[in-house]
Design a protein that fits this description.
Universal_stress_UspA, 5 strands, 143 residues, 5-stranded parallel beta sheet, 39% helix, disordered C terminus, alpha/beta
Amino acid sequence: MEKPRKKIICAVDFSASSDAVVHYAASMHCCDAELIVLSVVPRGERENGMLRKQLHEFSRYSDILSENKALALFTVEHGEPAAAILNYAKEHHADMIILGSHGTTAIARLLVGSTAEAVLRHAACPVVILKTPNNNKKDHGTT
């Protein structure tokens, strides 16, 4: 009887921390895991140009993964990022979630909330959070 493959969700928002998430996930291919690269389009965000951006970034991530001989499924969900990540993980019986953190301050986290923190607190599976220093981040992510 063949052992089922572990499902690892790599939540991305196309920021520098997402690049780190994809690199980290690519290094885990030796675990014979099924990698799912998940992008969440927040409610109300304009769709104009989003599909083109997603395809471009997914292509770039595909290159990173293929360099490590890792295969992945790319998917897009719509909604509030933390809730969408948690729902997807639950529906697909994820064994692990990997996502980046932009390293926001405690005050910003109290006022705005943090996707990474919400996922960490509410996930039914282990969560790996890769922190990206502030000086490396791109200013267009949600994680």
